[in-house]
Amino acid sequence: MAEDLTKHPPPASLFHVKNYPVPAHIQEFSSFFARKGLSLYIVGGAVRDWLLGIRNEDFDFATDAMPEEVMDTFHKVIPTGIKHGTVTVLFRKQQYEVTTFRVDGDYSDGRHPDSVAFVRNLEQDLARRDFTINALAVNAYTGVLTDLHDGIGDLKRKVIRAIGDPEARLSEDALRIVRACRFAGKLGFAIEDKTFTAMKKLSPGLEAVSGERIHEELSRMLLGARPSACLRLLQECDALKIFMPELDACVGIEQGGYHIHDVFTHSLLACDAAAKNGASLNVRYAALFHDIGKPETRGGTIAGGHTFYKHEFVSERLTAMVCERLKFSRADTERILLLVRSHMLHYTEDWTDAAVRRFIRRIGVDALDELFALHMADQEAIAGKSSMLTLGRLPDRIREQLHAGTALSVKDLTVDGKVLMAAGIPAGRHMGTIFQDLLELVTDSPEKNTPEILIAEAQMRYRKIKEQSSTLSGT
User: Fold this and answer.
1) Which residues form the domain of 239?
2) Residue 226 carries which DSSP code?
3) Where would one find coiled-coil regions in this protein (predicted)?
């Protein structure tokens, strides 16, 4: 729901809070509740972020209206989560997700309440929320702010504090441990002592949280300006070793040589650098995972530094385990694995043009920019600044090859399957092998990418395949 809240700046000081500037379209929406003697509140992040001067147009609504009353009030209502009191109202070409005030029963699965009871009381509804800074509510018609848990005070103090008994709040849903780290890291807040003690004690409960939910929280962390602040808190409260032990194992693994940080700190700094440079989420994950194979491969010292022979391949294997555990998509997993196993770039100026073309083929044209972004983040984590100088002329040479239009895949060849079948080569695995041979040929000699030459080469290779088959069969 879009309205530019920069037109309504937050209070100059949290000590002098005025009414929230409710956008006109939300005020009109809430008027339908008011006419029936009901209330609608903006709750959670939008209120918190406004007080902090952070733009947030993701509005959540809570109401004393029962779900059936909301559905009777508006023409178009989708019962998106009606079991928990949530419906989506379509009004004036906008969508409003509205949840009835409720109190939750026990959380026997550590994630969902066994039961919910709808109530008419805002105080009861706010008491079930996770942290004080997220328990702020604004009347969507009048703009009057309600703070029953000193959330504004904790914003002033820059503290993340659970509502009520921290162990009770975190036991309800262990993912709140991860959320506390995200909020604290993102906002630059501290975690209140009792809340942090409860987080540390209850972190094993994260084993019961689905990989998808943890993945979503991690992605939000990595999309922030400084992921390391969140990730370090995860490690300090023992949460990291529950769902990502491969990264936790990097703590204290010294590298020596030109590395002044242990593997864990280096990985976090690389992730920060990727974020600072505006790299994609997959690059940020690759930066975080690129060295997780080092604890397993750490060897003796050479020139003051430890060896980590072929750590990139161990890192790839461990990263695959993380991606499977946290339910990454197949496409994201494949891209992250490619970046991790390829991050050790050892370019020298004596590479031939054919070597450059093979490099492009191995990485893929669409992944080159992300690999270079990872390289720059890795370099910045080592030296404090990013530079492409370590790659020499490789980026320029790649551009030259791409501009020349050289064949980098089978589809770039001047012959296709129909042409080869017309030349007497049947479809099947032999044709696939021949296509790969032809691609190797034109990688070495681009000038041979002509139909006449490739057809002749394909026929010759097919004859050799048949001869070999005849020899093996004894005929």
Assistant:
1) 159-243
2) -
3) none
